[in-house]
Design goal:
single chain; mainly alpha
C-alpha cells in the first residue's frame, strides 16, 4: 500500500467515525454479510491483471483507483461493523456472567 492510499484511508476513518458511532446492529450485520458483486469482481480482476502487466490505460488506472477507494470504504465500514457487533457480544457475556 502506498502513502497516498494510507492517507486516503486515514481520511476515511476520520470522516466515517460519526457514522460508525450511530450504526445500528441491523446495519452492522448487513455490512458484515455484504459481498462484492461478481461483475464488479471480474472487472477489478481484469484491471488488476492489466496493472500487473503494465498494460493499463490512463482511464483504466483511474477506474482501478476508484474501485480501490470503494473497496477501502467498504472494508473500513465492515471493520467498524465487526467492532460494534463484538462490543455488543462482549457486553452480553459480561451481563450473563453477572447473573
Amino acid at each position: 500500500m502506498n502513502a497516498t492510499a494510507t492517507s486516503i484511508e486515514s481520511s476515511m476513518l476520520a470522516l466515517l467515525k460519526p457514522i460508525s458511532k450511530s450504526m445500528t446492529v441491523d446495519v452492522a450485520q448487513a455490512l458484515v454479510k455484504m459481498r462484492m458483486d461478481r461483475q464488479f469482481q471480474n472487472r477489478l480482476d481484469e484491471v488488476a491483471d492489466k496493472n500487473t502487466e503494465g498494460q493499463l490505460t490512463g482511464s483504466e488506472r483511474q477506474e482501478c483507483d476508484h474501485h480501490l477507494a470503494a473497496l477501502s470504504f467498504v472494508t473500513i465500514m465492515q471493520s467498524k461493523a465487526r467492532q460494534k457487533l463484538s462490543r455488543r457480544n462482549d457486553g452480553r457475556k459480561r451481563r450473563s456472567n453477572n447473573l
